[in-house]
Amino acid sequence: QADVLTGAAMCVKVIRCYILASSIWQVALSSSTGYTGCPCIDPNIPQYFQNSTCKVPITDHSRPLCYPDNYGASSCQAWDKLLEPVCAYRDGTPKNAAPSWCSDQWCFVDASTCSVAHMESEYFPQIPGLAFSYATCGYINAFNSYAAAADLQGTTIRVHALDEPPMSYPSRSEDHPIGRGWVWDLYTQIFKSAAVEPRYQDLLPYSGSAWDACVHDVALGQLDTCMGTFWETSERREIVDFVTPFTADNFYLVVMQKPSEKDLWSILVPFAPELWVCIFAVIVCIAGIIYFLEKAAEGPDHPHFHGENCIEGTVESTYLACVGFWSAGVAHESVTPGGRMVTLAFGIFVILTLAGYTANLANFILATKDLEGLYEDVDDVVSSGQKLCMWSSTYSTFVDHRPTISLSSVLLVTSSEQAMDELEAGNCAGVVSSEIENERILKLKANCNKIVVGSPVMTLMLSQPVTAQFSRGLSYGLVNSGSEKAALALKYQNQDECAQPEAAPTKFDIDNFYGTLIITIVATCLGLTIRIVRCSYARYHGKDFVADPNAASNDDAAQEEARGVDEQQRQETF
Fold first, then answer.
1. Where would I find the beta strands (DSSP E) of 172-223?
2. Distance CA 549, CA 323 (A)
3. How far apart are CA 248 and CA 435, in angstroms?
4. What is the SS3 string spanning 505-539?
């Protein structure tokens, strides 16, 4: 069995070598006299012009030209590379901006026997059966598109321009400082370079989409082309030709943005929960240590501790530590050397911790959150029982990609503006819209609350409908306008009305400080409650309420001293 497999492998290798050798031979053969199924011939052109001063006259250009006697004969060569007026100057110097086909090889062939791509010669129609072929020499016929464009010179093309900003602005004047639109300016340049005279005219009466009406009028022969961007759908392809597409347009789902949730405790976000626990533990420990160190100096003269018991002293010290931390300043007035050292260390801890907190809080507040949509994709919308909005012209293509979604789940519209209005009104939960349309419509202020979600739903090519007469010529013009297309795309970029200025400072809203306000209000209410409880307690026991117990002790001592003085004066009097 292994021998059989080895033999089969050897046979495959031999066949591959044979095919490769045959291909190399055919290429070598085509490089000289053409492919064997379509050999180069010598049509002996001079014999047809014996009465002419020019043996090979070319009259298709602005002035008669004389080409070499052996032009295109017998072998594959780049016959046009050194010839005027397209590929070279009069002295035979090749032009830097010459078309690519100038360097391609070709030769004359017999149309009746050629089995590869070829075209009848328009330069020499008097020679029966004469054709030329690039394919027999191993090249693609790029000259054909150029010739088709040249055939348009002096013709009139009937055009309708759609009102489709920023692609086309029919209402603008020719001397508008910005221009008349991306597609309008591009085709104007193509018309000028091809010496074509555009004649603008209106559409036939229609109902529905202006784009569908334009395709219909081109199919009827009422128009030659339309200025705008058209999706090449299968239905449109059945009735009309299109020029070479200038881009692929991906379709995405557009939904309403999910409302942002209010976080009342966002002030705690900069630090992790375990870090907050650690900070509180440090505050309590520092407070206890300071009280322990200051306990030896407690008494009437100490700023904080006047001989209370350990619990009251620790609570007082913890209170002072909390006040110092949240006010970014040390509240303890330590008198002992050890207490002062610990207080200094606590001050460093406070300033560094709050500096890190402030910086991180600013990052959290100013950082842009990822926007989320109410739905994730098309299936999410349909499974929730909601409808999809989409252009009526794209529905058939959409169904080809999503055959399980019926028309009952779809709301057809005729414009992106209508689709966004239906989405805003809640008549559909998502819009299947193209990338080109999203670039325009979602930058408007009215649609800042909408967002693109998910991966591409489908893709269609963007092009323009055209009659057969102008198809190849306009396509050639579009293919050779790459730099112009890039410049116009930058020129007509849509202004983003939803973007925020990058350098503008962001003002904090009250929403950002709900947590801070709640904490402050709760603490204030707690303090008032304590005051009310103490006042009620004092009245219940028939005593006058004194806000500061220390002050009460001082008043009692003063009164006792005054009574002693009075008693002494009374005794001296007697």
1. 197-200
2. 21
3. 9
4. CCCCCHHHHHHHHHHHHHHHHHHHHHHHHHHHHHH
Q: Report residue 38: phi and psi, to 5°.
A: -160, 70
- For the record, the structure tokens of 393 come out as 């012209």
Nearest to 392 by CA among 249, 236, 529, 259: 236
Tokens 């929403």, residue? 511
Angstrom distances, CA of residue 120 to CA of 46, 132, 508: 18, 6, 76
CA atoms within 13 A on the CB side of 10: 6
Q: Is 324 helix (H, G, I), strand (E, B) or coil?
A: helix
- Please name the helix (run of DSSP H) or strand (run of DSSP E) that holds residue 454, with its range, or none: strand 450-463
- Please tell me the pTM assigned to this model: 0.58
Antiparallel, parallel or unpaired: β 230-231 and 450-463: antiparallel
Decide which of 151 and 382 is more confident: 382
**Could you tell me which of 147, 156, 228, 187 has the C-alpha nearest to residue 481?**
187
Computed on alpha carbons and rounded to an integer, the radius of gyration of the chain in Å comes to 45
pLDDT digits (tens, 9 = 90+) for 159-208: 999 999 889 999 998 888 889 999 999 999 889 888 899 999 999 998 88
Q: pLDDT tens digits for 483-531?
A: 788 888 888 888 888 876 554 444 444 454 455 446 546 644 664 576 5
What six digits make up the tokens of 406? 């019926």
Tell me which residue of 242, 231, 240, 326 sits closest to 283, measured CA to CA.
326
Please tell me whether residue 465 adopts helix, strand or coil conformation: strand
Of 152, 165, 173, 137, the C-alpha closest to 39 is 137
**How far is the first Cα of the chain from the last one, in angstroms, to the nearest whole number?**
145
Residue corresponding to tokens 């489908």: 458
* CB environment 117-150: b (16+ within 10 A), e (fewer): ebeebebbeebeebbbbbbbbbbebbbbbbbbbe
Q: Which amino acid is residue 254, in one-letter code?
A: V
Higher pLDDT, 236 or 488: 236
The span from the CA of 360 to the CA of 366, in Å, is: 10
Query: HSE on the CB side for 90, CA within 13 Å?
Result: 3
Average pLDDT over residues 452-474: 92
Question: For residue 349, which phi and psi values (nearest 5 degrees)?
Answer: -60, -45
For residue 314, give the nearest of 292, 338, 296, 298 by alpha carbon: 292
Report the distance separating Cα 398 and Cα 408, nearest Å: 14
User: Residue 418: helix, strand or coil by DSSP?
Assistant: helix
Q: Element (H or E) spanning 389, and its range?
A: strand 388-391
∠ CA 361-365-371, nearest 5°, is 140
Q: What is the DSSP string of 327-366?
A: TTS------SHHHHHHHHHHHHHHHHHHHHHHHHHHHHHH
Q: Which residue has the tokens 């492998």?
A: 9
- CA–CA gap between residue 157 and residue 470 (Å, rounded): 8
> Could you give the CA distance from residue 9 to residue 521 in angstroms, rounded to a whole number?
87
The phi, psi pair for 307, rounded to 5°, reads 100, 20
DSSP codes joined into one string, 211-241: HHHHHHHHHHTS-SEEES-EE--HHHHHH-E
